[in-house]
Write a sequence for this structure.
């Protein structure tokens, strides 16, 4: 399988400070990959580089075989969709209006929607279980509902790659579990390549085929959850001592931080 | 509003704006009303009457309508691009530039070859377009434009223009600038049909461009990064919207001076009725804005007849309290 | 407010009032020698000063004091809206004359506070102009010349009125500006001169109202006088083009739209007679062949 998204020796600096350097990462199609790491490791920068919100200072990023910087924006938006950490709604768009915006990369010059576009948007809302909220204003929804709406919009883009930046950051336990389950389902049903930047080590371990640990702007460890989630790599990246257990339902590794030693 | 109610409401707004024009053309110090207007349009009645009804009143009402439509649609666009419901068409300094152009014209223009009726508007338009160029030059950095930079530059430009205007007015002969000062408060005139046509063409192009961009405006209104991720060329779309909105604003200000509050209030009110979808919002605002300025001008003409108020005074008197009400309602809701 | 602070404030107020009262107000009648250094803050008053022979004693004028030509040689103290207090004080005048106008009140008061003698001479209407001639002359000790000049101006105005006495009054719009239309209303100097010259002002509002085009059409003026005081005599003008669209106005249809350039001063000073004569020649061109010699 070819690489859906590949970083080749990518560097990015904000002024003098390098946020990412020597980043090498190849994500294969139809996989679910979790990007983990402590704060400031460069996880959000990685997502923004992958969605072309930022241009790398050095190195090259390819999306489905093509150089990311050379793709016209609409074509890029047809291939990759992003679910950001949070959204700030200044105006009172309804849920349906927001999800229909996801069809933008597929529309013509005047942006006229065809019945098929409306249908795809509705389907996306169904999949994410927000169809019953279609007339509500986005601002009036809870964090979890809003997250699902943005996910529905991303799905309406019909991307091949889905990037999520800490999708569970503001969600309660029930919704965290639900989001990951939904992502895995979508991955299975549609063959999506899913890249999740997360703080949630254990949920990521349970649902991702592969994990990459980021530290100080580069990939420190990369492999299956079983390879990556071991005490030494975790101590090197997170500076925390842990024990590793086994998740009874999935058989995947499970990280248990040891108590503070001080 | 769901289903057919929104397009239905839009039709109502369109009808209201037409009714406003008819009403405005039916009021005035002479005792000529709607019946006489219809007769005049049909070519009947004496020539004096026809002149008053059509060349004086109707032409003026149409000018007022165009100005209202231009300012309201521009207001929508600015509010979307700057993601700020408090933005008005003057916020980026376009009005300051137009005013400065007009004042500079009055101060230095050689009267021999430029007449005030077309010279001053041309100078105002030039001033506004120069401002646009300066804005573009000052706020682009490495091919990107921060909306904060746009806003701040606009504020600074407005302040600078005000200062230069003050300089001209205080060092020049006050008699010369009497007219300028009235113009700056919103001076509606009865334009010649060629002037009206010019303005109509400029507004038509600008409003057409904004209407075509409606979907993109929706995306920009949600957020720059999100719009980019949905495939919008944010830099280009922002500038297309800003230029289109600025050209129609400049045209409006050039001919009638600064009519305030319309570009701020009308998009707000229409957003409450129609929602933020610009495919409905832009046309609704254009027609509602037209109606507002037409009616304000009719009031300005008749309240103290035969004296006239500057139309900007009337829009401020309506707009100010209305805006406070909107604001209080918004605060109470959140 | 705490009592000690309040006491202090009251004392301060009393002290300041006492000091203010202690200054002699200007204009008290003490026998004065004729002023020898005069500053004029109003172009009309400058004209009067020169006309009554006090011209050599004028040491400061505004930038707009352009008549007689000699007046332009005097040092300038600013515009007539915002004259410079400092410049006036530096000239050490023993008399400052000013006509109340928009914006010069603060400057005049400031000069008074500096101890200068400031005489306020209203000069806006016709009557005020004639009175101003005599008052200013009196202030300079040129009473006789003032009276003579005022009498001569009055006589010429009466002559103009007599010369058009039998003719029907021409309904006239005295317009100062076209966008927006600002006209001279009743009791303004232009309107009063117009009346003398045999015209009837179609505008009945007082002062300088902003008039709607419809009202102008309805009033059917047979003559439109368009004043452009900032235009030097003889330059091109575009106001005719503005009016030329409205052929329904009798004045436009009969090509009686006259642009008045700066040869008509319309200043409330000694030249109002010249203005009246010139206006009469325009309003009733058949009666007059040439205005009386100045």
């Amino acid at each position: 399988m070819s690489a859906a998204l590949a970083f080749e020796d990518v560097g990015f600096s904000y002024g003098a400070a390098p946020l990412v350097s020597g980043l090498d990462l190849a994500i294969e199609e139809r996989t679910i990959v979790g990007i983990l790491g402590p704060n400031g490791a460069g996880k959000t920068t990685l997502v923004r580089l992958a969605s072309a919100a930022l241009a790398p200072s050095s190195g090259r990023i390819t999306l489905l075989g093509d150089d990311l910087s050379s793709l016209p924006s609409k074509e890029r938006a047809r291939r990759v969709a992003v679910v950001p950490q949070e959204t700030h709604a200044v105006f009172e768009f309804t849920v349906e209006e927001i999800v229909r915006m996801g069809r933008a990369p597929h529309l013509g010059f005047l942006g006229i929607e065809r019945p098929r576009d409306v249908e795809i948007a509705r389907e996306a809302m169904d999949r994410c279980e927000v169809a019953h909220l279609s007339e509500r204003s986005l601002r009036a929804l809870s964090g979890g509902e809003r997250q699902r709406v943005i996910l529905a919009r991303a799905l309406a883009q019909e991307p091949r790659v889905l990037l999520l930046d800490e999708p569970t950051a503001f969600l309660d336990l029930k919704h965290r579990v639900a989001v990951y389950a939904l992502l895995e389902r979508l991955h299975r049903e549609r063959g999506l390549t899913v890249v999740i930047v997360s703080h949630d080590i254990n949920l990521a371990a349970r649902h991702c085929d592969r994990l990459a640990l980021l530290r100080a702007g580069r990939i420190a460890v990369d492999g299956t959850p079983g390879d990556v989630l071991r005490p030494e790599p975790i101590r090197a990246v997170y500076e925390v001592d842990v024990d590793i257990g086994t998740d009874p339902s999935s058989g995947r590794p499970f990280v248990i931080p040891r108590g503070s030693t001080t | 509003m769901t289903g057919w109610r929104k397009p239905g409401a839009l039709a109502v707004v369109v009808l209201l704006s037409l009714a406003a024009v008819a009403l405005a053309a039916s009021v005035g110090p002479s005792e000529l009303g709607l019946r006489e207007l219809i007769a005049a349009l049909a070519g009947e009645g004496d020539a004096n009457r026809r002149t008053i009804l059509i060349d004086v009143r109707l032409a003026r009402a149409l000018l007022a309508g165009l100005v209202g439509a231009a300012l309201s649609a521009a207001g929508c666009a600015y509010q979307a691009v700057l993601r700020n419901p408090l933005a008005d068409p003057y916020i980026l300094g376009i009005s300051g530039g137009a005013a400065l152009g007009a004042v500079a014209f009055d101060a230095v223009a050689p009267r021999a070859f430029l007449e005030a009726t077309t010279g001053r508007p041309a100078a105002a338009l030039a001033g506004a377009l120069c401002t646009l160029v300066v804005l573009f030059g000052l706020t682009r950095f490495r091919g990107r434009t921060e909306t904060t930079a746009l806003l701040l530059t606009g504020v600074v430009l407005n302040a600078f223009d005000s200062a230069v205007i003050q300089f001209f007015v205080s060092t020049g002969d006050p008699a010369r600038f009497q007219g300028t000062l009235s113009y700056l408060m919103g001076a509606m005139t009865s334009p010649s049909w060629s002037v009206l046509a010019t303005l109509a063409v400029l507004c038509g192009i600008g409003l057409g461009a904004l209407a075509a961009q409606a979907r993109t405006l929706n995306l920009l209104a949600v957020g720059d990064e999100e719009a980019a991720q949905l495939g919008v060329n944010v830099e280009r779309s922002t500038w297309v919207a800003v230029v289109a909105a600025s050209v129609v604003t400049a045209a409006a200000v050039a001919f009638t001076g600064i009519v305030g509050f319309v570009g701020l209030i009308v998009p707000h009110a229409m957003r409450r009725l129609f929602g933020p979808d610009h495919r409905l919002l832009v046309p609704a605002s254009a027609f509602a804005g037209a109606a507002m300025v037409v009616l304000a001008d009719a009031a300005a003409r008749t309240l103290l007849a035969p004296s006239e108020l500057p139309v900007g005074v009337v829009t401020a008197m309506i707009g100010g309290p209305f805006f406070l009400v909107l604001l209080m309602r918004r605060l109470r809701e959140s | 407010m705490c009592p000690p602070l309040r006491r202090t404030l009251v004392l301060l107020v009393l002290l300041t009032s006492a000091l203010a009262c202690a200054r002699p107000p200007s204009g008290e009648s003490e026998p004065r020698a004729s002023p020898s250094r005069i500053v004029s803050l109003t172009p009309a008053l400058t004209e009067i000063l020169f006309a009554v022979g006090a011209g050599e004693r004028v040491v400061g004028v505004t930038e707009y004091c352009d008549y007689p030509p000699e007046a332009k040689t005097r040092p300038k103290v600013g515009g007539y809206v915002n004259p410079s207090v400092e410049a006036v004080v530096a000239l050490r005048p023993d008399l400052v004359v000013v006509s109340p106008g928009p914006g010069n009140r603060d400057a005049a008061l400031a000069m008074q506070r500096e101890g200068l003698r400031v005489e306020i001479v209203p000069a806006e209407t016709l009557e005020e102009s004639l009175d101003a001639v005599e008052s200013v002359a009196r202030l300079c000790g040129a009473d006789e010349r003032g009276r003579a000049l005022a009498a001569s101006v009055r006589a010429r105005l009466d002559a103009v009125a007599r010369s058009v006495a039998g003719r029907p009054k021409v309904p006239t719009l005295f317009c100062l500006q076209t966008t927006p239309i600002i006209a001279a209303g009743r009791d303004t100097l232009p309107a009063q001169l117009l009346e003398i010259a045999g015209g009837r002002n179609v505008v009945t509002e007082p002062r300088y109202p902003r008039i709607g085009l419809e009202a102008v059409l309805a009033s059917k003026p047979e003559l439109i006088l368009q004043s452009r005081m900032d235009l030097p005599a003889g330059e091109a003008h575009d106001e005719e083009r503005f009016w030329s669209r409205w052929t329904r106005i009798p004045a436009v249809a009969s090509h009686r739209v006259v642009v008045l350039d700066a040869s008509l001063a319309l200043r409330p000073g000694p030249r109002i007679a010249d203005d009246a004569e010139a206006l009469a020649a325009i309003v009733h061109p058949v009666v007059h062949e040439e205005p009386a010699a100045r």
The radius of gyration of chain B is 20 Å. The interface with chain A takes residues 2, 80, 83-85, 212, 214-216, 218-219, 221-223, 225-226, 228-233, 271, 275-277 of chain B (CB under 8 Å). The mean pLDDT of chain B is 86. Residues 47-81 of chain B form the longest helix (35 residues).
